[in-house]
Specification:
Blueprint: H1 3-20, H2 36-43, H3 48-52, E1 58-69, E2 73-80, E3 83-90, H4 91-94, H5 96-102, E4 110-119, E5 125-136, H6 152-157, H7 159-165, H8 167-188, E6 193-194, E7 200-201, E8 212-216, E9 221-225, H9 230-238, E10 243-251, E11 263-272, H10 276-295, E12 299-302, E13 305-308, E14 314-317, H11 318-324, H12 336-345, H13 356-367, E15 376-379, E16 401-406, E17 409-416, H14 421-435, H15 447-455, E18 460-466, H16 467-475
Parallel strand pairs: 3-5, 6-10, 14-15
Antiparallel strand pairs: 1-2, 1-4, 2-3, 4-5, 7-9, 8-9, 10-11, 11-18, 12-13, 15-16, 16-17, 17-18
Helix pairs in contact: 8-10, 8-16, 9-15, 11-13, 12-13, 14-15
């Protein structure tokens, strides 16, 4: 029997003994406790004499994180969702019977205590327990305090343990919640309304990606978990809503990496009578607001890089970036064979029949994107890789589009929307033809979306922001798995 199994057996025996003593292991009706953070905020500055004048009896509940026993007394650290506080349990204070029960408590148990505050000889703020009782018995030991969980995959798989043991991890997910609240507040204050669109869709659309497929039995039809909400949100522009947003999940049946999870969170927002240039300004405003509230200002570090989010941000065309940063001679950008040779030299998959725009974006991903550390808008993407974007009036080979890169990561994608139903139909047909015999993405044209555009959609711009990558940026997280509570993993062996 390994050591963990032995500890679990011992804990189960203690639990059975407590039940024989008529101690409920999982009692109900526990009154709402006070928060440890509040105690520290108010009383950390109190000296011992001042604490003696505090008559309030505090009621706390939380998890035992450490325990030091001394026969008739014990010190423990109690942790709730806001912090930790030392508790002193003395047999004379809680009573002999209660202390006998307390001696069967373990590190990891959830308990409730009441008592007054004092300072120990070392000056630590401490609660002297008057009463102590069990809230929930822990039948499984926590990791050893000073080593924690060293295997990252176990941390992701057992996130509940990771959250118990690591304050820094809890702070990441608090910041994630705050970032989402800031985005909602920003958009709502500017007359955007939040909406919900279908997660299960009959046609794959809104982006180029491999979908997850399911089947609805009652309707006897295949459905696809959405890869993007874009086409439904733009239907709402047709319907008369001029500013809409959705903050929800997308699903893509593709690879897993430090930047990719098959289930991820996106913010998409659409604004009538705006252009992609307007959304550049909005993006700078939103990110600056997040930086001020989360980081205290526009300058902060991410994975060893000092970032400065003070607007305005750099702007480059895709072509300029390939020449200036990717070091590709301008003349080669129109030479298919040269581009294919470059990609093959980089071990990038190439069929050879792709349009030049696809070669450009692949070379950009490999040669330019990792070098874009400071916030940079890359503009003027080729039309053949932007099937939903409006063509540039200056040069129809390109679209009014940008992608935002920070710290070598793509964070956002936006464009002035194509609202000509004739052109949209033609591009859809080209996109379907380019897929070939891909059985996982059936060649179905979204006729209803074309029908919506035929009613007339106002000129508009739309943007998608990857929330997980945004949270990575503002929490200094190296992997997307660090900012998703329960990332997708292989089954346990």
């Amino acid at each position: 029997m390994d050591s963990e199994s032995l500890v679990i057996r011992q804990r189960r025996e203690k639990a059975e003994q407590l039940e024989r003593d008529n101690v409920p292991l999982y009692p109900n009706g526990i009154s709402r406790p006070e928060k440890i953070e509040m105690i520290h905020t108010i009383y950390d500055s109190y000296e011992e004499e001042a604490l003696k004048r505090v008559s309030h009896v505090f009621s706390l509940a939380g998890r035992i994180m450490t325990m030091r026993r001394f026969g008739k007394a014990a010190f423990l650290h109690l942790q709730d969702s806001t912090g930790q506080l030392q508790v002193y349990v003395q047999r004379e204070q809680v009573g002999a019977d209660a202390y006998i029960i307390f001696k069967k408590f373990d590190i990891g148990d959830l308990i409730k205590v009441t008592g007054r505050l004092f300072r120990t000889k070392t000056g630590e703020l401490t609660l002297l327990a008057d009463t102590i009782g069990l809230v929930a018995k822990s039948l499984r030991p926590l990791p050893e305090k000073y080593h924690g969980i060293r295997d990252k995959e176990i941390r992701y798989r057992q996130r509940y343990v990771d959250l118990i043991m690591n304050k820094e991890v809890r702070e990441v997910f608090r910041d994630r919640s705050r970032i989402i609240q800031i985005l909602r507040r920003y958009l709502s204050s500017r007359d955007f309304i939040e909406v919900e669109t279908p997660m299960m869709q009959p046609i794959v659309g809104g982006a180029t990606a491999r979908p997850f497929k399911t089947h609805h039995n009652a309707l006897d039809m295949d459905l696809y978990l959405r890869i993007a909400p874009e086409l439904y949100l733009k239907r709402l522009l047709v319907g008369g809503y001029e500013r809409v947003f959705e903050l929800n999940r997308n699903f893509r049946n593709e690879g897993i990496s430090v930047q990719h999870n098959p289930e991820f969170t996106m913010l998409e927002f659409y604004e009538a009578y705006a252009t992609y240039k307007d959304l550049m300004s909005r993006t700078e405003e939103m990110f600056s607001m997040i930086a001020d509230e989360i980081k205290g200002g526009p300058v902060f570090s991410y994975q060893g890089h000092v970032l400065n989010l003070s607007p305005p941000w750099y702007r480059m065309t895709l072509e300029e970036a390939l020449v200036e940063i990717g070091h590709i001679p301008e003349a080669e950008l129109s030479d298919r064979e040269c581009l294919i040779d470059r990609l093959r030299a980089l071990d990038a998959p190439v069929r050879g029949n792709e349009k030049i725009g696809k070669f450009w974006t692949r070379l950009f991903d490999l040669l330019v994107e990792p070098k874009l550390i400071q916030p940079t808008f890359i503009t003027r993407y080729p039309t053949d890789v932007s099937p939903l974007a409006r063509k540039s009036q200056e040069d129809s080979r390109f679209t009014d589009r940008f992608e935002l890169f920070i710290a070598g990561h793509e964070i956002a994608n936006a464009f002035s929307e194509l609202n000509d139903p004739r052109e949209q139909r033609r591009r859809f047909e080209e996109q379907i033809a380019s897929r070939g015999d891909d059985e996982e993405i059936p060649p179905v044209l979204d006729k209803d979306y074309i029908r919506a555009l035929e009613l007339g959609m106002p000129p508009a711009a739309g943007e998608g922001i990857g929330i997980d990558r945004l949270v990575m940026l503002f929490t200094d997280a190296p992997s997307i798995r660090d900012v998703i509570l329960f990332p997708q993993l292989r089954p346990e062996s």
